[in-house]
Amino acid sequence: MEIKPRQLEIIEAAGKILSESGINGLTTKRLAEKMNFSEAALYRHFKGKEEIILLMLRYLAENMNERLTACTQGTQDAMENLKYIFDDQFDFFEKHPHFLVAIFSEGLLEESQAINQAILEIMATKRKHLMKFIRQGQEEKSITSAIPPEDLVHFIMGSFRLHMLQWRLSELTFDVKKKGNMLMENLLGLIHFSAK
Questions:
Q1: What is the mean pLDDT of residues 173-196?
Q2: Which of 49, 89, 106, 144 is the most exposed, fewest CB within 10 Å of its CB?
Q3: CB neighbours (10 Å) of residue 56?
């Protein structure tokens, strides 16, 4: 997927408006004002609000896939790669908190079926990377096989989501990376310990 620099600026500005005002606060008029150009100029890049949100979500899915692929190429150890995945995700959202609301905004789910599908793509991307290393860890007997890999991924993604939601509700007041990595280290310790 190719995103022009101006489109990336627009979706980042849209993410900031979503963070500040939610889905109802994101209007083309407000977005154009934030970008310091006319609504007509905005429509040269996008047909409307839904297209902006869709591009944002597709960008996030592709960006996540690239980042998680890159961060797990240095080691063959399943547990280490799971840690790298979490560290990378926390690092990304710490640097780009305006994209957090795009994933965790309940209002987005009510916008359209296309947006719901784009959110599911983000989830599927993360699930794919986690599943690879959960299965590898089970084959190597470093992760419990008593629980199906699909369920372990569900537990992990649920814990990650809850942690990020708490960070958002706290208005980003705690160290999301430090606390998140400790949480995931403990969670991985539970599924690793069970294997012994």
A1: 87
A2: 106
A3: 26
